[in-house]
């Protein structure tokens, strides 16, 4: 069973200036994966909240929300008001709920992926990674 890294190592017959090492990644620590995925989820949550805020400001500044409110008011004879349903507090509360749900899902997915990789390593032997020092 020949891998791409094996083929590249055989092709490179000339001496290199640094030492070349090939290592296999055979284990991902569960708690390290959880911590890293939680950190990525926090960054994603911040981006989500800021993007909801900026999109709301753009829709408010361009008058799209006012136009939608007027359109829905004409259809429902004034029974439903988009402006009352989609104010800044409601939008930011929805953004916070979405960010918290994403935080939970991304953290759990990071743990699941680490577990699946650790199980797959038993079958595949791991990921071959090449390093070279200059």
Summary tags:
134 residues; 5 helices; mainly alpha
Describe this structure in words.
- This protein has helices spanning 4-11, 30-62, 64-75, 82-85, 88-124; strands at residues 20-25, 127-132.
- The chain has 134 residues and is mainly alpha-helical.
- It has a two-stranded antiparallel ribbon with strand order 1-2.
- α2 (30-62) packs antiparallel against α5.
- The mean pLDDT is 88.
**Percent of residues in β-strands:** 5-15%
Which H/E pattern describes the elements?
Answer: HEHHHHE
Number of strands: 2
Which term fits the overall shape? elongated
Low-confidence stretches: none
Largest sheet: 2 strands, antiparallel
Q: What fraction, in percent, of the residue positions are helical? A: over 70%
Distance between the termini: 30 Å
Helices and strands, with pairings:
Layout: H1 4-11, E1 20-25, H2 30-62, H3 64-75, H4 82-85, H5 88-124, E2 127-132
Antiparallel strand pairs: 1-2
In short:
The protein is mainly alpha-helical and 134 residues long. It has helices spanning 4-11, 30-62, 64-75, 82-85, 88-124; strands spanning 20-25, 127-132. The two termini are 30 Å apart.
